[in-house]
């Protein structure tokens, strides 16, 4: 992955999205002194079956902030799109474009917005909507005639856009030295993990397996993958 940039904006749908693989890259980059901000489309209020949404949302916000701190990120913003039924469209593009204009990143990172995951598992609608809207919002943010009502100066300075954990990944990041931070970041989602079952509920072996599998394609190190999009 290119690293000739100093600031990035991460845009994902839910708390925990970037932590399932991508957080190791974030930890690597913050350790290099890069400035990274997170924007989440929702508060994850419908993500724990055993917990009422009004109780769940503030807990998941708190856990996401702690998760970001584990990888060196201190600025975390949340939108109020509805968890589970986030829609691709102008309101979502406007909100993301506003964040791009405010933070003026050189690099925008989002989650996998393809129909499937590596290995063929079906992706979910929220991830697809937010990823697609993020890619489009990068262009929106650079056009002063789109969303002028925001009252924010256009930003054409995004050099790279990347989607984490895409089945069409083209690049990877060596996370050997930042793997432990990646695990700590996922472990910060304590309530969410306690409600899960199966492999995804145990951060260290799950993330290690992903990193080793990716590393087999990209040089044999622990790695996390991205689809790098041309601008």
From TrEMBL:
Q: Keyword set for this entry?
A: Zinc
Kindly indicate where the leader peptide sits in this chain: none
| Record Pfam families | PIG-L
Q: Does the keyword DNA-binding apply?
A: no
Q: What is this protein called?
A: GlcNAc-PI de-N-acetylase
């Amino acid at each position: 992955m290119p690293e000739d940039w100093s600031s990035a904006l991460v845009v994902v749908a839910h708390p925990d999205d970037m932590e399932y693989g991508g957080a190791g890259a974030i930890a690597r980059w913050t350790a290099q002194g890069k400035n990274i901000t997170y924007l989440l489309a929702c508060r994850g209020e419908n993500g724990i079956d055993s917990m009422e949404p009004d109780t769940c949302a503030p807990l998941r916000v708190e856990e996401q902030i702690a998760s970001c701190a584990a990888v060196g990120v201190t600025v975390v913003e949340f939108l109020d799109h509805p968890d589970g039924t986030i829609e691709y469209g102008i309101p979502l593009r406007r909100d993301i474009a506003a964040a791009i204009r405010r933070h003026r990143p050189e690099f925008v990172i989002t989650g996998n917005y393809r129909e499937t995951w590596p290995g063929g598992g079906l992706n979910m609608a929220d991830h697809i909507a937010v990823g697609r809207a993020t890619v489009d919002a990068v262009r929106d943010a650079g056009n002063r005639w789109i969303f002028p009502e925001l009252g924010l100066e256009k930003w054409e300075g995004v050099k790279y856009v990347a989607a984490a954990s895409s089945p069409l990944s083209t690049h990877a990041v060596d996370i050997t030295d930042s793997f432990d931070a990646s695990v700590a970041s996922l472990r910060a989602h304590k309530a969410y993990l306690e409600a899960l079952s199966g492999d995804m509920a145990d951060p260290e072996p799950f993330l290690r397996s992903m990193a080793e599998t990716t590393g087999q394609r990209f040089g044999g190190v622990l790695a996390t993958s991205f689809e790098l999009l041309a601008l």
